[in-house]
């Protein structure tokens, strides 16, 4: 009979081996749970730990009457955690997710699929600032790996109203252009930071360790812009452009005594709610401060003011210009339509808009004194308005490489130099403000939890004397009542000058059939409350500033007098129809 007993030595060896195996397993468990527990725990947390920037609450923007121009509403951003795009069977749901999200977020399924299947990507943001209905539909789908995070959305309740003053807020919640850009640090606040662990659905784990650096909310801005004034000028501008089949235009209303901008409108413009659909970034710019143009005969107001200030002319000084003047270089310069006005006073030079008369005054002033005067009016440099994108214009000075002695003649009637619309309004406001140049501004105050800071009017310097201002005002009022009576306002005196400027060609010279028509002035003449520029770009029906800009100019002044309750200063007499 055979013996099947296992030798004691073999049993002992197996037992020792088993003990060693258990010790090894025990050590491994001890190593992971005790020795390496902290490092592994940190590694696990790190895979779930994410740092998120928390946007600050952006301040509201109000007009002077405290109407909302820009505010915030809640919104969501939709993101995807790539490694969570699997179903219960472990199969990828990326294609199905892309197809279901596509109609809700405005991207194609192929585009979404490509975004969420990029190699090395763990977290993909697909869409920012979703509308409420889209967010709700995505929530209802309950797609694995799809995360909705709350974020603020900037809205502009009045659409394209004052859009080039306001600017917009981009997808990074940063202000661009206009007030939003210029005051971004003030109105935008300081973002906070959240460092926290997220679960498989991307939600922050409330009880897990986290760090929270709260945001500092932005200040509310109150503008000098009066929404009633803005509405008046935008409507008038649209009507003028349509009536003249024009390419565009600009209207500015300024308070000459403070420099505050009450209204500023340009066309074409854009809707800041839909900034991401704008294909031409030029629309984001504000032509009132960024587009330089040759102002034409409105510039004669500056030339005549400097002549009066220098004492080289008075309103009754006479000049016989003849049919033309030959300027350095041999070119002949004529009046508009080659008219010879004969002997004319300085007031008549403005009434006739005589190029030859303006050139004569500039020559009497002298180059050095004349250009120092133009610089004093704020030309050739930014005004310093609190908006992004302001241009300095173009003012060639004696000694500059691009200046010639012919400039001293053509500049006198607004050619051979370029100004922005704002520079022209701000310059004529000097005459309406007793000779003081003011710094224009659009923000009157801003408020945060620490209080309210008011922006006070800033005097830059004196340009001309009060006596000169009174004289040029009388002259320009006469011009309105004689030359532009059709566009005057019954019961009120207004100081006005028109301008018809040629449009320079990039190939040199000027386009034959393109002009910029404008009217520039202030009123009431005895106590000016408003300075106004109406500028119409390339009018088709009439090339002349008086006709192209006149109806809008008259309508704006009349409505402003009514809006602000400014009583008439003389008997109301009927004037001819304002039909262009």
Protein model, in words:
This protein has a domain at 227-563: Beta-lactamase, CATH 3.40.710. 34% of the residues lie in helices and 23% in strands. The radius of gyration is 35 Å and the shape is elongated. The N and C termini lie far apart (134 Å).
Question: What's the topology here?
Answer:
Layout: H1 8-35, H2 37-48, E1 49-54, E2 61-62, E3 68-81, H3 94-105, H4 109-116, E4 123-130, H5 132-141, E5 146-155, H6 163-166, E6 168-169, E7 175-176, H7 178-182, H8 184-188, E8 192-197, E9 211-213, E10 220-223, H9 227-244, E11 248-254, E12 261-267, H10 287-290, H11 300-310, E13 318-320, E14 324-326, E15 332-334, E16 343-345, H12 346-352, H13 355-365, H14 367-376, H15 407-410, H16 421-432, E17 436-438, E18 443-448, E19 451-454, E20 459-462, H17 466-482, E21 495-504, E22 510-523, E23 530-537, H18 545-563
Parallel strand pairs: 2-10
Antiparallel strand pairs: 1-8, 2-3, 3-4, 3-5, 6-7, 8-9, 10-18, 11-12, 11-23, 13-16, 14-15, 17-20, 18-19, 21-22, 22-23
């Amino acid at each position: 009979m055979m013996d099947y007993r296992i030798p004691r030595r073999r049993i002992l060896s197996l037992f020792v081996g088993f003990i060693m195996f258990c010790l090894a397993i025990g050590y491994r468990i001890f190593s992971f749970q005790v020795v390496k527990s902290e490092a592994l725990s940190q590694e696990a947390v790190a895979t779930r730990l994410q740092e998120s920037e928390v946007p600050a609450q952006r301040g509201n923007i109000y007009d002077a009457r405290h109407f909302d121009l820009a505010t915030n509403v809640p919104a969501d951003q939709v993101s995807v955690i790539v490694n969570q795009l699997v179903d219960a069977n472990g199969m990828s749901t990326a294609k199905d997710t892309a197809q279901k999200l596509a109609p809700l977020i405005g991207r194609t399924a192929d585009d979404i699929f490509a975004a969420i299947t990029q190699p090395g990507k763990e977290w993909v943001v697909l869409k920012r600032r979703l509308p409420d209905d889209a967010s709700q539909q995505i929530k209802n789908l309950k797609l694995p790996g799809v995360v909705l995070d709350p974020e603020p959305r900037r809205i502009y309740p009045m659409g394209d109203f004052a859009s080039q003053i306001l600017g917009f807020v981009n997808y990074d919640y940063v202000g661009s252009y206009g007030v939003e850009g210029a005051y971004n640090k003030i109105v935008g606040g300081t973002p906070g930071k959240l460092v926290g662990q997220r679960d498989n659905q991307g939600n922050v784990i409330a009880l897990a360790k986290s760090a929270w650096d709260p945001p500092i909310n932005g200040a509310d801005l109150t503008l000098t812009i009066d929404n009633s004034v803005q509405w008046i000028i935008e409507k008038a501008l649209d009507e003028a452009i349509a009536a003249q089949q024009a390419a565009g235009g600009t209207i500015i209303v300024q308070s000459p005594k403070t420099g505050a901008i009450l209204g500023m409108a340009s066309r074409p413009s854009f809707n800041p709610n839909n900034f991401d659909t704008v294909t031409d970034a030029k629309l984001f710019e504000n032509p009132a401060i960024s587009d330089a143009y040759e102002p034409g005969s409105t510039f004669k107001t500056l030339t005549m003011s400097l002549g009066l200030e220098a004492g080289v002319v008075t309103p009754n000084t006479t000049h016989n210009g003849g049919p033309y003047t030959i300027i350095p270089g041999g070119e002949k310069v004529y009046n508009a339509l080659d008219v010879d006005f004969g002997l004319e006073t300085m007031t008549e030079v403005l009434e006739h808009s005589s190029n030859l008369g303006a050139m004569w005054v500039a020559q009497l002033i002298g180059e050095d004194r004349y250009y120092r005067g133009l610089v004093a009016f704020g030309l050739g440099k930014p005004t310093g308005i609190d908006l992004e994108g302001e241009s300095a214009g173009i003012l060639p000075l004696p000694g500059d490489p691009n200046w010639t002695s012919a400039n001293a003649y053509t500049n006198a009637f607004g050619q051979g130099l370029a100004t922005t619309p704002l520079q022209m309004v701000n310059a004529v406001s000097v005459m309406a403000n007793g000779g003081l140049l003011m710094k224009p501004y659009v923000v009157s105050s801003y408020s945060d939890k620490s209080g309210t800071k008011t922006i006070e009017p800033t005097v830059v310097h004196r340009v001309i004397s009060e006596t000169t201002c009174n004289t040029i005002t009388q002259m320009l009022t006469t011009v309105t009542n004689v030359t532009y009576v059709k566009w005057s306002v019954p019961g009120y005196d207004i100081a006005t000058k028109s301008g018809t400027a040629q449009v320079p060609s990039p190939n040199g010279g000027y386009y034959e059939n393109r002009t910029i028509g404008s009217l520039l002035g202030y009123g009431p003449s005895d106590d000016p409350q408003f300075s106004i520029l109406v500028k119409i770009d390339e009018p088709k029906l009439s090339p002349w500033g008086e006709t192209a800009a006149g109806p809008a100019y008259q309508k704006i002044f009349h409505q402003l007098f009514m809006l602000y309750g400014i009583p008439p200063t003389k008997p109301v007499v009927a004037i001819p129809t304002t039909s262009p």
